[in-house]
């Protein structure tokens, strides 16, 4: 999943990296309609919504090829494993193709790595094998050693991706964190950069650092930047 550095990325290529995201609790129906319309217009890889909105976006995007992503144990990660597993199973039944789960951050910072691993593994076992599982490690809250442990555990537990942030605990994706995460998980596991990805230049920098998926609430601005840069 590694790639060589690129000075420019075309709008269509960049769209394949993007999970077009709307997770704010105050979001209303018209915003989800807009989310889906934008995903269809720009052909984003996926839309990412809270579980309650999966049926709506699934129906709206039926037949488009755009994936449905949802979040589990979100945004704190402190829900017990059985609840996360149930939520994950129900999300898949509702139409989710991909799930972004938050690790038990407190368990990781307490040094209980077995707990963290079993938490991820419990969710992995609760969903079908074709469902893509991404693990949000909340890089902003972790030391470098803890980031490394979180990536190693996620890989060991059967996750498909590691992801930087939920967007609800401060910070955001950095080039340095993406480089570290890619180094730890190797070339064959996914790395998703999420949090503060708001413009084309940042998106390209993260991709060049090793990200092969971007979580964006500002996806349209990012894509418009691609059009502008590729027309120079």
Task: Chart the SSEs and their pairings.
Layout lengths: L10 H5 L2 E5 L6 H14 L3 E4 L4 H7 L6 E6 L8 H14 L3 E5 L2 H5 L3 H14 L5 E5 L7 H13 L4 E3 L11 H11 L4 E5 L5 H10 L3 E4 L2 H12 L2
Helix pairs in contact: 4-6, 6-7, 7-8
What report would you give on this structure?
It is built from ten helices and eight strands. It has 232 residues and is an alpha/beta fold. Strands 1-2-3-4-5-6-7-8 form an eight-stranded parallel barrel, surrounded by seven helices. The model has no long low-confidence stretch (mean pLDDT 96).
Summarize the structure.
The protein has 10 helices and 8 strands. With 232 residues, it is an alpha/beta fold.
Overall structural class, as computed from helix and strand content, comes to: alpha/beta
**Low-confidence runs (pLDDT<50, min 5 residues)?**
none
> Quick one: biggest sheet?
8 strands, parallel, barrel
How big a fraction of the residues is strand? 15-25%
Portion of residues in helices? 40-55%
Chain oligomer state: single chain
Q: Please state the average pLDDT score.
A: 96
Order of adjacent strands in the largest pleated sheet: 1-2-3-4-5-6-7-8
Q: Identify the overall geometry.
A: globular
Tally of DSSP helical segments: 10
Radius of gyration: 17 Å
CA-CA gap between termini: 29 Å
Total strand segments = 8
Series of H and E elements: HEHEHEHEHHEHEHEHEH
């Amino acid at each position: 999943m590694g790639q060589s550095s690129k000075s420019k990325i075309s709008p269509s290529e960049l769209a394949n990296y993007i999970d077009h995201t709307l997770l704010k609790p105050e979001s209303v129906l018209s915003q989800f309609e807009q989310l889906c319309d934008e995903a269809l217009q720009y052909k984003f890889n996926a839309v990412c919504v809270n579980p309650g909105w999966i049926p709506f976006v699934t129906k709206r995007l039926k037949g488009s090829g755009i994936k449905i992503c949802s979040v589990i144990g979100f945004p704190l990660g402190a829900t017990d494993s059985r609840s996360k597993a149930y939520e994950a199973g129900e999300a898949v039944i509702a139409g989710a193709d991909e799930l972004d789960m938050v690790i038990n951050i407190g368990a990781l910072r307490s040094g209980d790595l077995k707990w963290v691993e079993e938490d991820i593994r419990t969710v992995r076992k609760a969903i079908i094998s074709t469902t893509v599982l991404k693990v949000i490690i909340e890089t902003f809250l972790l030391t470098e050693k803890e980031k490394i442990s979180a990536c190693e555990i996620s890989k060991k537990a059967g996750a498909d991706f590691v992801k930087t942030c939920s967007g609800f605990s401060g910070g955001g994706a950095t080039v340095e964190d993406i480089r570290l995460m890619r180094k730890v998980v190797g070339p064959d596991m996914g790395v998703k950069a999420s949090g503060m990805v708001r413009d084309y230049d940042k998106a390209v920098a993260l991709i060049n650092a090793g990200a092969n998926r971007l979580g964006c609430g500002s996806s349209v601005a990012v894509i418009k930047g691609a059009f502008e840069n590729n027309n120079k």
